[in-house]
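Q: Could you fold this chain for me?
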Amino acid sequence: MLVKTYGSAVYGVEAISITIEVNWMTQTGKDPTIVGLPDSAVKESMQRVESTIKTNGFQMPRTKVVVNLAPADIKKSGTAFDLPIAIGLLGATEQIEKREMIEKYVIMGELSLDGEVRPIKGALPIAIQARKEGFKGLIVPKVNAKEAGMVNHLQVFGVTHIKEVIDFFENNETGLEQVIVNTREEFFHSQYDFEFDFADVKGQENIKRALEIAAAGGHNAILIGPPGAGKTMLAKRLPTILPPLSLQEALETTKIHSVAGKLPENATLVSKRPFRSPHHTISDVALVGGGGNPQPGEISLAHNGVLFLDELPEFKRTVLEVMRQPMEERRVTISRAKVALDFPASFMLIASMNP
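A: Sure. Below is the predicted structure, expressed as structure tokens.
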């Protein structure tokens, strides 16, 4: 029997809906087959799915199983497809009877061998895409539920074990508590809770005045002074005198940190302007973004905030050269053979060096 479940693949800071088609056929076959340009992590998911199904008292079919991830011409990566594949397999083998309900939800999560659901990256863009495409709800790991719950007009459920998902569908969509987040309350509550504060700095009137002007106009600045003069200390406190993030800026920033897996557990919005301070040994790719599966770099993680380059002359020339275009364009385009991704990169650059 053929059953469809739905998931999402994250590209850049946006998500694309993926249809997971699971077909169980009567003829004998070898191991289950996954098609649709899966990477190694997706191919390995069948081992985790099989262990989960057997550990929780369900039957793994001995005949041929084909899993197709559509659209089949887009590369799928990561471990977040474990849960929708497992639910699709149980539906296809008629071990979940209420199969028509499965297609109303986007389901994402990594499985452990005993069925525990582990966190994923990019829950916020996945939730935004699910709402855009008219799905009734989203089922994600409990750790990611508050992050996804910021999207209104979408039912979000957090789960810790695959049995919770199975019981939810078997019991006519009951048994899970919907995650409801008051976005504005969460956002404004933590906006002014700073670890470092510009108000702590005593004296230093000239440099404080210069940084106030830089903050007011969004200008870049370079601090030159002997070791111990307070360059790093002042730079760390600069975000506290920048204007508060707007709700739209906070959503943009949160999406980037979500895709990069930088959000803490049970986080909602990034409510404070980011401050990134990479070490001077950083590579070009780590700074601007990229890699085999392109990820945002430090300049994108500093979007709407401050990028601090301490000991500027120690950075490699090539690293500083690749920052030219992103600083002008306020975004960076990562181009690969089959895909070109845009990451936002609107940041204030603060650099420091010794005379």
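A (continued): The domain at 2-170 is CATH 3.30.230.10 (Ribosomal Protein S5; domain 2).
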